[in-house]
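Write out structure tokens for RNA 3'-terminal phosphate cyclase domain-containing protein.
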Amino acid sequence: MLAQAVLPVLLFTPCAATEQSSGADGGDAALADGRARREAKLVGGTDAAMAPPVDYMRRVLLPTLRGRFGMDCDAALERRGFFPKGGGVVRLSVAPLAAGAGLEAMRSLPHNTHTAKLEIVAFDAGVASGKGVAAQAVETARDEMVRILGSDCPTFTTRVEAPDAPANRSVSGGGAGVHIRVMTPGSASLGAAGAAEVIELRGGNPVKAAKEAASRAAAVLAAAGGADADEHLTDQLLIFMALAAGRSEMISASAPSLHATTAMDVCKQMLPACAFQTVALGDGRWHITCEGAGVKAAM
């Protein structure tokens, strides 16, 4: 949530390379043209059961912003944080737009779900490390995708993060999670969709969590004709569509969520020049377009 809020601010506020940010919550690194790369240190929960986790931002949202809007943005996960203690640390880095520049509109591209690829990644951290939870989650998610999709299941890769990785080592408490990314041809970020479920230590069930993640990813893959975004990515791209110049469009795998409809209403109030249109395609997918406000970076 913090990253979603701060990304547009970092993008549209260029500063001189000599300008310094305040405190430990941000910083600047010089770009080749003399501008300063904007950086923000975000502290809080990175993996919670009721929201897309930090891995969704790193493996789905940011690659999509890079591939579809041309943004230069990245995030480094320094420490995971779990409910209720939080304490996770993520460093967000964005190359701001040049003074007077803006975002180009996003276009929906042809899809071919039959040649999509899956990436299944799981982790266990803190007191959950070394208990085999992540390996069990990867195996369960893989088997569930094959069971649901059968012969239509795309090729996939699996990976278990090392328990002693820096982000998994020094955490308050502990937990585990599994994330599935759907990658369609044309771009590593095109049509990327993620599903994740944090496996909480008390009452957590890694098998159930992995099955739920697989079910969500399979639903996106099964969207007739393919889609540009799942429910969460749809929510998160709307602000950039509103800020961009021209007509942006995407095919969402499902009907706009309450998050999405709220985001569109807020965008229209703050950027009266933008206009959204949503059309149901009759097969569960929705076509979402936006005439963007064409906001330019500060001079």
